[in-house]
């Protein structure tokens, strides 16, 4: 009898775990299409002339993020993508390109976990590394790394226990000195706003 009861309990627990809603899982993965809209603020070139002469092209990219829920309300989100290529302009004329990789880690608060419409806010840190600077025929480059704050607001629209739609807006600090011949010539504040739309899956 004892063995039968234990077997019954084990089967019941297995069945209950199989039927548990996905909302109880701590893992959420989203895939988004994100439009990057740079602020395009820069210091005068070589310390003279007007400001904001340097600009960076906007772009739409693919983004994947992974969230882990410590509680129903609090989560951490790691935002990932692949190196992105941007055009750089001086007074509207192209002076070359560069690539950057901008992962971010954010702490989130979800106001209405489990609801059909679940808004959230987040704050964290962004690390951007620049590479393949090809500006002014190799004479100009950007600093290798940039650290800055990242702010976020978004909403999940629940479609099922696993699937959801997502709309997300982030403001990210990305800044760098512009070097010409190894000498600082200007300072740029890319500081983009990122508008994202995508889908989420909760395991």
UniProtKB/TrEMBL annotation:
Top-rank taxon: Bacteria
Is Transferase one of the keywords UniProt gives this record? no
Q: Which residues form the signal peptide?
A: 1-22
Classification via SUPFAM superfamilies: OMPA-like
**What's an example GO BP annotation here?**
transmembrane transport
Give the main location.
membrane
Coiled-coil ranges per UniProt: none
What protein name applies here? Outer membrane beta-barrel protein
Taxonomy, top ranks, is: Bacteria, Pseudomonadati, Pseudomonadota, Betaproteobacteria, Burkholderiales
């Amino acid at each position: 009898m004892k063995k039968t009861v234990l077997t019954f309990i084990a089967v019941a627990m297995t069945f209950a775990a199989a039927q548990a809603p996905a909302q109880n899982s701590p893992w959420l993965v989203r895939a988004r299409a994100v439009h990057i809209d740079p602020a395009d603020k820069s210091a005068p070139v070589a310390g003279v002339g007007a400001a904001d002469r340097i600009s960076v092209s906007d772009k739409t990219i693919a983004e994947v993020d992974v969230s882990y829920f410590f509680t129903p309300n609090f989560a951490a989100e790691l935002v990932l993508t692949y190196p992105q290529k941007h055009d750089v302009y001086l007074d509207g004329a192209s002076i070359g390109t560069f690539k950057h990789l901008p992962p971010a880690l954010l702490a989130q608060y979800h106001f209405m976990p489990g609801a059909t419409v679940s808004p959230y806010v987040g704050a964290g840190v962004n690390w951007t590394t620049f590479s393949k600077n090809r500006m002014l025929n190799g004479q100009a480059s950007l600093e290798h790394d940039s650290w800055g704050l990242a702010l976020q607001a978004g909403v999940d629209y629940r479609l099922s226990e696993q699937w959801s739609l997502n709309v997300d807006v982030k403001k990210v600090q990305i800044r760098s000195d512009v070097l010409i011949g190894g000498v600082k010539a200007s300072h740029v504040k890319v500081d983009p706003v990122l508008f994202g739309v995508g889908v989420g899956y909760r395991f």
